[in-house]
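User: I'm curious whether this sequence folds into something compact or stays loose and floppy. Could you predict its structure so I can see for myself?
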Amino acid sequence: MFTRRSINFFIGLIILMLIGGGGLIYWSGKQYDELVLAGDIALKEGNRKREALDLYNQAKEMKRTPELQERIDQLEADVFEMEQLFLSNLEYVDGGTYIMGNDFNDMEKPTHEVRVSGFFMGKYEVTISEFAHFVEKTGYKSEAERVGGSEVVSGDKWVFTEGVSWQHDEFGNTRAEMDWSRYPVIHVSWYDASAYCKWVSEQTGYTFRLPREAEWEYAALGGIYATPHTYAGGETPQQLGWYQGNSDRKVHPIGQLQSNEVNLFDMSGNVWEWCHDWYNLYPAYKQINPDGSSTGTGRVIRGGCWIRGERAMEVTARGNYAPKRTFGHIGFRVVRER
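Assistant: Here's the prediction. I'll summarize afterward.
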């Protein structure tokens, strides 16, 4: 039998639970609003769709509304499209240890042991259509567009030509849009390539960047499957990459010749590829995931190109340009961290 005191206790307990529940409901509602607002900001300020989708899904756990579900459905479709575009042509390169450089050319000395962690790398060089997608979604102005032109080949010289940018070929002619998905983007600076990587990172939620030079050479050699060879994939340059001896003095579509041991195409030849690092002398000691020199005047390019000879195609060969420079023989490929 309940006494008046026990009844009052239970009434007080019920009131306390109701007050606490109201506070919980209030706090959940506030959290919901903050998550939705954060998702809105991610879309408005950076078009960061993956980030916005994650925030909206967290909000959905607290309250389901038709408006929020509509946003989530649209973002899921957009993110799926992005992932198909940017994640489908990556190859995983297992980490390992190798000997970087050679002892025959001053800027490739000394040979030294390098350990790199595993990473994903673009199977192909970034295409014009992929770069165009980035420009369309962001309104980005490339370095060539900002300065009013780029360097095109004229005979045996590179000549600055007004009006040339990433939509153009190596001679300054407009590349037909129907071919944009087949050709590597050129006339892009190191800064343009880095901006592209940053944007893809924001869209996919993964970290994309330019390859470190040590990663590039390791991947070109074939990673853990490497056997000693001169070019990416073997010893026969005509079968592996486009260069002065077989290119007919022009850029070729991606992926037409043989891949190397880790299924990467055009690591030797076609267009030089920007790397993350500043160009400088190698150290004489063992390194782990080296990030390159902290200073310099030029950023590393690797791989050789359609207008250079066999030597430039060698997996150890290095070049460099100032990061703002743009040419009709330099493009890039991406790395995605695990």
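Summary: The longest strand covers residues 272-278. Residues 87 and 295 are 32 Å apart (CA to CA).
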